[in-house]
Design a protein that fits this description.
- By secondary structure, this protein is an all-alpha fold.
- The chain folds into two domains: about 1-110, RNA polymerase sigma factor, region 2, helix turn helix motif (Rna Polymerase Sigma Factor, Chain: A); about 115-193, Arc Repressor Mutant, subunit A.
- About 75% of the residues lie in helices and about 0% in strands.
- The chain has nine helices and no strands.
- It has helices at about 5-10, 10-20, 25-45, 50-65, 75-105, 125-140, 145-155, 160-170, 170-190.
- Helix 3 packs across helix 5 and helix 8 crosses helix 9.
- The protein is globular, with a radius of gyration of 18 Å.
- The N and C termini lie far apart (about 40 Å).
Length: about 190
C-alpha cells in the first residue's frame, strides 16, 4: 500500500475531518500535523525555494482552516488541501515571473538567489551540491506548470500514477503523457544548462 493510500485508510482521519468541519481546531491541528511534511515537499517541488515553500504550505493551511466547514467527512483531507496549496503555488509562480520580468527591465544587477539545504561535510561538496541544486531548480522552473507538477509528485513525492491522477482529478493516461513530456523537457533543459 502506498504512503498516500495509507494516509486515507486511517479511520481516525474521517473522524478528524468531521470534527474539523464543525469547528474543532484541535482536530484541524492534528490534520495539519499529519500532512505538513507532504505539503511542504509538494510546495518545495513546485516553487523551488525552501522559505517560499514553508510560507505557501502554511498559508494554504490557514486558508484551509478558514474554509474547514466545506470539508467533506467522506473524503480524505489531503486532496482537498492540495487543491488549495497548488493554486497558491501556481499564483505565486505567476506573480514571481511577473516580478522577475519587472526586475529584469529595471536592472540586471538584481537576481533571484535560491538558498537552502543542510551544511555539507566540506566546502567543495557543498559548492557542487549547491550548483547541482540550482541547475535542477532552474531546469524545473522552465517546465510548464502541469508538467512540473506531475514530475514533482512522481519523482519527489514518490506517488504512483493512479495517486497522482486521483490527486489532480485527471486520467492516468494524462499523468503518463505529462510525465513523459516533463522528463524529456527536463532532460533538454538540463542539457542546455
Amino acid at each position: 500500500m502506498s504512503r498516500l493510500a495509507a494516509r486515507y485508510v486511517d479511520a481516525s482521519e474521517a473522524s478528524l475531518v468531521q470534527r474539523a468541519s464543525h469547528g474543532d481546531n484541535t482536530a484541524f491541528g492534528e490534520l495539519v500535523r499529519r500532512n505538513m511534511q507532504a505539503a511542504y515537499y509538494a510546495a518545495l517541488g513546485l516553487v523551488g525555494s525552501p522559505d517560499d515553500a514553508l510560507d505557501l504550505s502554511q498559508d494554504a493551511f490557514a486558508r484551509a482552516l478558514k474554509h474547514a466547514a466545506k470539508l467533506d467527512p467522506g473524503r480524505p483531507f489531503y486532496p482537498w488541501y492540495y487543491a488549495i496549496l497548488r493554486r497558491l503555488c501556481f499564483n505565486f509562480l505567476r506573480d514571481r515571473k511577473n516580478r522577475q520580468r519587472l526586475l529584469d527591465e529595471q536592472g540586471a544587477w538584481l537576481a533571484y538567489d535560491l538558498s537552502g539545504g543542510g551544511p555539507p561535510e566540506d566546502p567543495e561538496s557543498r559548492l557542487g551540491r549547491e550548483h547541482a541544486r540550482r541547475i535542477v531548480a532552474r531546469a524545473l522552473s522552465r517546465l510548464p506548470e502541469a508538467q512540473r507538477e506531475v514530475i514533482v509528485l512522481r519523482e519527489f513525492e514518490d506517488l504512483k500514477y493512479q495517486e497522482i491522477a486521483d490527486l489532480l482529478e485527471i486520467p492516468v493516461g494524462t499523468v503518463m503523457s505529462r510525465l513523459y513530456a516533463a522528463r524529456r523537457a527536463l532532460a533538454d533543459a538540463l542539457e542546455e544548462l
